[in-house]
């Protein structure tokens, strides 16, 4: 009787409709990626003239041209520059934001509340509003056309969003662990590095993922500070690619876009489990 009842279990059409809707939304979101991959293999005359998703034939020479780089700078140099800037930004944000977050979440000091509120208020400040003062400072220091303006601010805990993210995570950690460490003779720094920091790994990896993606895709800031083609990143090289070869380089440009997208995808896939865990934990702790 049980098997008969199970065989006649009614279909939940509402759940089916939800799954179909999610599948349709997934296809819509993945279409730009599919279009990018297909266009990177199209001949030059089909990139603009044809609306078909699939190319008439695969033009693998687009990738060979993209691998040559632009302005006599190889793609490996461009990749190295992008990785250097993104890696420095990740290291700076993880170190500085975790230290600032520990101070706000665990330490007691005068004006802690107003300073934390002021830091949170800076999230609403547009990046372009501080770009000119920052450029003047770095120009007077002789650091323009170097990587320092893109990396150095990350070591000063200037990303208030990540500080807030880590603060929310640290506030959910039991204080008994630090009290036990304090009884054993640990000071604030030792408690931070040996007790709190290892437990904050999900929030730190979340910070690293977002920092890497945002820095890798950053175009405007890199355009302001970098002039020498040897210091260009992949993002700047894409613009130079079009400027150098005009409309005939659309195929190689999209091929280079696919190459530029691969490190972000690999970085995200490697740490996506920690991203979900860190965002979920930081959102419910308070």
From TrEMBL:
UniProt keywords, alphabetically: Cell membrane, Membrane, Transmembrane, Transmembrane helix, Transport
Gene3D superfamilies referenced in this protein's UniProt entry, alphabetically: MetI-like
Main location: membrane
Keyword Ubl conjugation annotated: no
Segments traversing the membrane: 16-38, 83-104, 116-138, 150-170, 191-216, 249-271
Domain of life of the native organism: Bacteria
Subcellular location: Cell membrane
Topological category with respect to the lipid bilayer: Multi-pass membrane protein
Domain (ABC transmembrane type-1): residue spans on this chain: 79-271
Keyword Transmembrane helix part of the UniProt annotation: yes
PANTHER family membership: ABC TRANSPORTER PERMEASE PROTEIN MG189-RELATED-RELATED, ABC TRANSPORTER PERMEASE PROTEIN YESQ-RELATED
Recorded family membership: Belongs to the binding-protein-dependent transport system permease family.
Name recorded for this polypeptide: Carbohydrate ABC transporter permease
Protein source organism: Streptomyces coeruleofuscus
């Amino acid at each position: 009787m049980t098997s008969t009842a199970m065989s006649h279990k009614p279909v939940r059409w509402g759940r089916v409709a939800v799954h179909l809707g999610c599948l349709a939304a997934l296809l819509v979101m993945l279409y730009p990626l599919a279009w990018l991959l297909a266009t990177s293999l199209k001949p030059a005359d089909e990139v603009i003239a044809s609306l078909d998703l699939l190319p008439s034939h695969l033009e693998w020479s687009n990738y060979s041209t993209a691998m040559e780089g632009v302005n006599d700078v190889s793609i490996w140099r461009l990749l190295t520059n992008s990785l250097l800037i993104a890696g420095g930004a990740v290291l700076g944000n993880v170190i500085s934001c975790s230290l600032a977050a520990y101070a706000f979440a665990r330490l007691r000091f005068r004006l802690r509340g107003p300073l934390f509120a002021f830091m949170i208020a800076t999230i609403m400040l547009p990046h372009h509003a501080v770009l000119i003062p920052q450029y003047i400072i770095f120009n007077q220091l002789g650091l323009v056309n170097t990587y320092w303006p893109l990396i150095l601010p990350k070591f000063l805990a200037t990303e208030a969003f990540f500080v807030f993210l880590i603060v929310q995570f640290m506030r959910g950690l039991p204080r008994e662990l630090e009290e036990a460490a304090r009884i054993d003779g640990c000071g604030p720094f030792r408690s931070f590095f040996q007790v709190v920091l290892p437990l904050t790994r999900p929030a730190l990896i979340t910070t690293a993922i977002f920092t890497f993606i945002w820095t890798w895709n950053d175009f405007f800031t890199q355009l302001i500070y970098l002039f020498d083609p040897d210091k260009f990143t992949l993002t700047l090289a894409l613009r130079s690619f079009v400027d150098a070869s005009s409309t005939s380089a659309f195929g190689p440009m999209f091929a280079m876009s696919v190459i530029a997208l691969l490190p972000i995808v690999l970085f995200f896939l490697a740490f996506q489990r920690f991203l979900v865990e860190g965002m979920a934990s930081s959102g419910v702790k308070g």
